[in-house]
Amino acid sequence: MEQNEIRKLLQNVANGDILVDDALLHIKNEPFEDLGYAKPDFHRKSRQGVSEVIYGAGKTAEQIIGISKSFAEHGQKDILITRLDKAKAEKINKEIPLDYYDMANIGIIGSMPKERVGKIVIATGGTSDIPIAEEAAITAEMLGNNTVRLYDVGVAGIHRLLTHTEEIMTARVVIAIAGMEGALASVIGGLADCPVIAVPTSVGYGASFGGIAALLSMLNSCASGVSVVNIDNGFGAAFQASMINHMGGLNE
């Protein structure tokens, strides 16, 4: 159930149009379905404001199809699938129409929301960070946010970033994505008056330790207001940014 459906149900209880026990039964009805290999959560949106997202890595195309059909049967028409490779996407598309975003490794069943709010700026240190940035961007857009992409603006040529100070200073949230030493988050943190979510990537040479060097650098940022998600976690950064962007009844 969506939050507006629950609100309507509670209003009907308040008006005396429905009994309390009947309303409780309606809310409890089918919170999830046991498919054996998965238990799709139909109450996720009522609890968290966002429907359950399917993590595609490690799942077969057949399992993703089964989970998606279960969601659709319970009213969730728009489904986000992350970490989905092209081969699985093609199999799914034969059974369920799906839009595939190759760079982001994301599949979307249904459609993107037509109305989006606020502004989330997504910046990368280099071009090699773009796959993680696109995961963040497509996720943020699917969650109803306006996004601005600033790609390849790393500190090795900091003048490239400084030409975009207006976008950074007018953002509701900034997602800073970088590998190597991960310095981009600190620089942006020193320019922005909004939360900065840092995403370390596994881009870099041997001493970057698959993103651990960038992770530690971002965790030790001297810029206030910088938070950090896990290595290559563009989805997690976008989800957090969306929650911040939607706070306070933002409607611009």
From TrEMBL:
GO molecular function: hydrolase activity
Residues spanning the signal sequence: none
Xref: SMART domains: AIRC
Record-annotated PurE domain positions: 118-250
Gene3D superfamilies in UniProt: 3.40.50.1970
GO BP terms, alphabetized: 'de novo' IMP biosynthetic process
Highest taxon of source: Bacteria
PANTHER family referenced in this protein's UniProt entry, alphabetically: PHOSPHORIBOSYLAMINOIMIDAZOLE CARBOXYLASE-RELATED, SLL1489 PROTEIN
NCBIfam families: LarB
Protein known as: Nickel pincer cofactor biosynthesis protein LarB
Species this protein is from: Hominilimicola fabiformis
